[in-house]
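Reviewer comment 2.1 asked that we show a complete input and output for one of the modelled complexes. We chose the LLP case, as it is the one discussed in the main text.
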Amino acid sequence: HGTMQINENGHLMIGGCDTVELAREFGTPLLIIDEAEVRRRCFEYRTVFRGTGIEAETIYASKAFLTMALCRILKEEGLGLDVVSGGELFIAQSAGFPMDRVYFHGNNKTPEEIKQALEAGIGRFVVDNMQELQLLNYLAEEQGVTANVLFRVTPGIEAHTHEYIQTGQSDSKFGLGLANGIAMEVIRIASRLPRINICGLHCHIGSQIFNLESFRKAGEVMMDFCNEIRRELGIEIRELNLGGGIGIPYTEKDPEVSIRDYALIVADTLKKKAFQLNLPLPKVINEPGRYIIGPAGTTLYTIGVIKEIPGIRTYLSVDGGMTDNIRPALYNARYEAIVTNKAFKDPIKTVTVVGRCCESGDMLIHDLKIPEVEPGDILAVFCTGAYTYSMASNYNGLPRIAVVLVNDGEAEVIVRRETYRDLISRDQIPARLNL
Ligand code: LLP
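Response of the prediction step:
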């Protein structure tokens, strides 16, 4: 992955930094973000439609992982941002991210969040439902502004991925149904609202998708819908956001999908449809999260208790777990790992890597092959940039871990480790409990 190497001591290096030293300097668990890899992936996405005749823009899905430092990198790399809450918007605002490049998602935006976004002057609202549309028009009127919107529709496509991360099917809490006519109805109403400027459509068919043909189907359904909108309402749709969702290989068993293939399939689909229906070619908006940040992250843990249950298995406990990476517990997600201070040693046994939480489901890796290990060795779990830190918790009173950005031999903390003080910093004791 990325800028990883093994140095002469048999230590894993990332971004020119020795991970064993990073663990010593910053402590563990530690999330390492490889800056060059993030930038490379941003660039790859930003330029992926080049030469296809399709105008494209890429916005990063903040939910995968967001910090102020990352906002600065994304800004420099020319990406936009998809935020789903006032909180994510606030992080972007605090980092000085250009607000015209921000898209606001969410199936239940609050009036306060909509006001915040209108005041900030964000680029696009991705309208999810009728209630939101009315509220947005009302609040925009109040502020004397116009809101630029995309409509999120559910194209009725079931991408083959884990049930919890499927989103494109008709029975979904997200978006406006196409088949049942709700999407058309909402857009019809929007076309009469004075403070709503209809810019385009959005769909997101799921996450960790390997079958790129799902995107062909989505493109076709969306273009057909653009055609219907033109026929019924006389409105030309200029922007098509096809969501994110490109899968990444977490283990050797997962395929590697090429986003160039994705772009070629989408471009081909849209061009054919545009020609067939005599529609203008819309601008495409890509909305990846995982693809940008997943492979750029690596988590370091210190190995603690090694428990051998004779004839059954060996449990290898590390100093983090479901509090810093809930994906194995939640989605049965698989990861690969190595012992970073013994990167050259041959694997001799199979262990089950578990976290330190009081929860049997707190497993990180089933059946990992590793060399002889002892407490204090450092385990590096790969591909942990996406949906790990952003889904972290303080379960069992574990402080959230630190995040370090590495590049060219330099390592800088971008999120400091939580302290025990942080754990109680928002607690208040009612006076009557003072004895
Ligand atoms: N756009 C929308 C509207 C989304 O809902 C999502 C992800 C994305 C873009 C980015 O998808 P990506 O490119 O990262 O696949 N926590 C789960 C994933 C949930 C994804 C939610 N939506 C996981 O850890 O696998």
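The mean pLDDT is 96. We note this here for comparison with the apo prediction described in Section 3.2.
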